[in-house]
Every structure is written in C-alpha cells, then in structure tokens.
C-alpha cells in the first residue's frame, strides 16, 4: 500500500501549524496560484481577518500593499528551486502592513517583519505549496533605527559648528581635500571663497561679544540662504568662513560672492535693544594647474581675501596667480 507523500506532508505541516497557532509568529500557506490555504492565529489577530474570510482567496486581492511583481519573483524561486527565500525588515520593512500594538515600541506606526518563504514539496519533488513565516521584529528594528539616529546625530555634531550650523573647520577642510582630489582627477573646475567680517573687533568692542555672535550667526544664515546644495560651506575660524563652489569658475563665483556681500551689507542684526550693520570682504581662488594641494588652494583664496582688505574692505577679489 502506497502513501501519498504530498498529502502526508501537508497534514504534517497542518499539524505543525496547530502546535504553532499560539506562538508569536505568522504562518500562511499558499497554493501554486497564490491562493491562501492556511492562516494562523497571529495572522488573524493582526489582520482582523478570520481564516474562513481568506481561505482560497488570492493573496494580492486581500493585501494590496504587497508588491505583487516582487513577491511572485521571490516565491517562484521557492516553487521552482525547492529552496527557502528570506527577506528582512532592512530590505523591506514589512510584507503585511499590520499596525504596531506593542507599547514599548509605540513610536512605530507598523509592524516591522522578517519573512521566510519555505517550499512544501510533493512526493515527486514538485513544490505545490509554499509556507510564509512572518516574524514580528519591531522591537529590534525600532531600537536599531533609534541607535542609528543617535549615532548620526553624534556624527553630525562632531562635524558641525554649534553656533552657525555650518561644518566646523576640521570637517570642512576634509571636504576641501576630497574636492581638490576629485577635481584634479577628473580635470574639473571648482572655486574656493574665503571671507571674514570687516572690523569684527570693533563690533565686539562696541556692542559686546553676544552681539558679535549674532553677527557671526547672521553671516552663516546668509551663506546658507545663498549657497547651492552641492556647495560645501564651513566656519573656518572666529569670524572667518569658507565655501567650495563645485563645478564653478572664478567669474561665476564672483557673481555669487557679490550677491552674498550685498545681502550681508543690507542686513540688519538685532540683538536685544541693539541694531547694527556690518560688511564682509571676500577672496576667490579658482582651482588651477599651478595649485598642487588643498593647502595651496586655501593660501590662494586667502591671498585674494587680503587683497580685498587692502582694497578698502566690503569687496570681492579674485586670485590671479603668482
């Protein structure tokens, strides 16, 4: 007397599911046409759908949030190769979009899931059904996301000047070095602008250091308002700033610098009951063949800035080379 292995396998899995009904994992069985055959308590509890409501229903009709093309591609490998397939919450946050009811991870709007797809083969090795095991990994996911957010914030703070929100000198100079190497390697043009606040000591002496800090912050705000997303700006020193204009020639950089200079000249700083205005001087250096490292690039821009100081301040100068 022969035994139908396919039937036995399915009964065995059904019995196995009976043991796992109350475990905190989701269990689903699909036939070859992706119709739902088995649906455990976990799935019922989180979906609100009873087994009789989903039985013999096409998976994609009931759960429209599932990317059908992606899932079919994943599942076909299981059907055809008789091997397991996996997906993690990092690759795809969920397969079934269930709400998160865990109080500890209440910040998550939905349940993060790891999913395993297993083959259920017949006596001749043909996979007629697949099982889907859904693991609730919301706690792990939320903790990892929160940890990453904390680490990202610490990294940002380590790179950022607290007063202005610009890159600090150390990180900005790292960016300058990278841009120098990139531009040299691909023979592309970039321009460096260095500038500072005119007579900043006079601002501090007349209005006080907190007012000087307000001027420093106002200058940074003006810089951020005028720069592009691809530009790299930093606070180089006390009242000194620097910005790399990617893929920008000196004549284009001068237009930017003049716009920034005028913006700052026309702005009014308000600190407590004090209102005052100030100006900046700017120096531009376009990256050229004669500049062999990023330090020389900075020296060239600083030389142009010195020319602006010598020229009466509140102006823009372009480095012409040695």
UniProtKB/TrEMBL annotation:
> Broadest EC class?
transferase
An example molecular function term from Gene Ontology annotations? diguanylate cyclase activity
Keyword Nucleotidyltransferase appears in the UniProt entry: yes
| GGDEF domain: residues covered | 188-321
Entries under Gene3D superfamilies matching the protein: 3.30.70.270, PAS domain
Query: What keywords sit in the KW lines?
Result: Nucleotidyltransferase, Transferase
Q: Does the keyword Nucleotidyltransferase apply?
A: yes
Taxonomic superkingdom: Bacteria
**InterPro entries in UniProt:** Diguanylate_Cyclase, GGDEF_dom, Nucleotide_cyclase, PAS-like_dom_sf, PAS_4, Rev_trsase/Diguanyl_cyclase
Read off the SUPFAM superfamilies from this record: Nucleotide cyclase, PYP-like sensor domain (PAS domain)
Q: Which PROSITE patterns match?
A: GGDEF
Enzyme Commission number, as recorded: 2.7.7.65
Q: What reaction gets catalysed by this protein?
A: 2 GTP = 3',3'-c-di-GMP + 2 diphosphate
The name on file for this protein is diguanylate cyclase
């Amino acid at each position: 007397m022969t035994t139908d292995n396919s039937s036995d396998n399915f009964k065995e899995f059904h019995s196995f599911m009976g043991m796992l009904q109350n475990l905190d994992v989701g269990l689903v069985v699909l036939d070859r046409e992706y119709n739902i055959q088995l649906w455990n308590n976990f799935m019922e509890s989180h979906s609100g759908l009873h087994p009789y409501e989903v039985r013999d229903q096409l998976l994609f009709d009931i759960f429209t949030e599932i990317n059908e093309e992606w899932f079919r591609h994943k599942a076909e490998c299981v059907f055809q190769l008789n091997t397991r397939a996996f997906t993690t919450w990092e690759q795809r946050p969920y397969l079934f979009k269930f709400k998160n009811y865990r109080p500890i991870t209440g910040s998550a709007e939905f349940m993060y899931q790891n999913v395993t797809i297993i083959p259920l083969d017949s006596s001749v090795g043909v996979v007629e059904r697949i099982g889907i095991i859904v693991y609730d990994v919301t706690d792990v996911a939320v903790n990892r996301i929160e940890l990453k957010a904390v680490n990202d914030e610490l990294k940002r703070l380590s790179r950022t000047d607290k007063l202005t929100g610009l890159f600090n000198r150390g990180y900005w100079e790292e960016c300058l070095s990278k841009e120098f190497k990139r531009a040299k390697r691909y023979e592309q043009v970039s321009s460096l602008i260095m500038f500072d606040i005119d007579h900043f000591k006079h601002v501090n002496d007349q209005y006080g250091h907190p007012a000087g800090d307000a001027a420093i912050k106002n200058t940074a705000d003006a810089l951020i308002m005028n720069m592009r997303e691809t530009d790299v700006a930093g606070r180089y020193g006390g009242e000194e700033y620097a910005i790399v204009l990617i893929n920008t020639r000196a004549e284009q950089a001068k237009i930017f610098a003049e716009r920034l200079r005028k913006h700052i000249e026309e702005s009014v700083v308000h600190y407590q009951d004090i209102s005052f205005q100030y100006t900046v001087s700017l120096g531009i250096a376009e990256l050229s063949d004669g500049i062999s490292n990023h330090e020389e690039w900075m020296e060239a821009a600083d030389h142009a800035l010195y020319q602006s100081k010598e020229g009466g301040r509140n102006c823009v100068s372009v480095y012409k080379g040695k």
